[in-house]
Amino acid sequence: MNDRSAAPGSLALVESLVNTLDLESGADALDTAEGRARFGLPENPENPEDPANADAVGEAGGEVARARELRESLRAALLAHAGHPPHREVTPLGELLASAPLLVTIDEHDGSARLAAAGAASLLSRTAAAVAEALIAGTWTRLKACEAVTCHWAYYDRSPAGRGRWCSMQVCGARAKMRRYRAK
């Protein structure tokens, strides 16, 4: 849906995770091996019906379920950035990110510091690091979700006033304006 350029820096991870679900068609990129691989999520074993693979299937399914929960909590936060209520009841993003281990890393060459995901760099930790980095940079609230109920696609608002409403003026914006015009 989005004809805008990607969000800056690590916010691109958040934007791309939220945009794995197309609300209009119901297509979920996390249902595919390629979609899960983009976020470092485990694949289902080749023979999921084999009892020997039961633990791997459960682990993969649990990781994907947690990624979906994170995605919808992020979407609710991005809707709030745009001044809209959550699209549905979700786990508050703060609760999810509170359990994400982060480290402060220092570059040996220039002494610069940054937050980074700790350990195996889970999706939750990488997302928490991206949000923290965006907070420091002042870009977090510019990442929004489209106000169109059938869309809610994530986009980075580059407008001077920071008051963008739709992921695409040509699609969602045009539809909303046409609905308003027809209602007159």
- The order of strands across the largest sheet is 1-2
Shape: globular
Question: Helix and strand succession?
Answer: HHHHEEHEEH
Which structural class do the helices and strands define? mainly alpha
Residue share in helices? 40-55%
Mean pLDDT: 83
Describe the largest sheet. 2 strands, antiparallel
Alpha plus pi helix count: 6
Distance between the termini: 27 Å
Task: Give the strand content.
Answer: 5-15%
Model description:
The protein has helices at residues 11-18, 33-37, 54-81, 93-98, 123-137, 169-183, and strands at residues 102-106, 113-117, 143-145, 154-156. The chain is built from six helices and four strands. The protein is mostly helical and 184 residues long. A hairpin with an 8-residue loop joins strand 3 and strand 4. Helices cover 42% and strands 9% of the residues. Strands 1-2 form a two-stranded antiparallel sheet. It has a two-stranded antiparallel sheet with strand order 3-4. The radius of gyration is 18 Å and the shape is globular. The two termini are 27 Å apart.
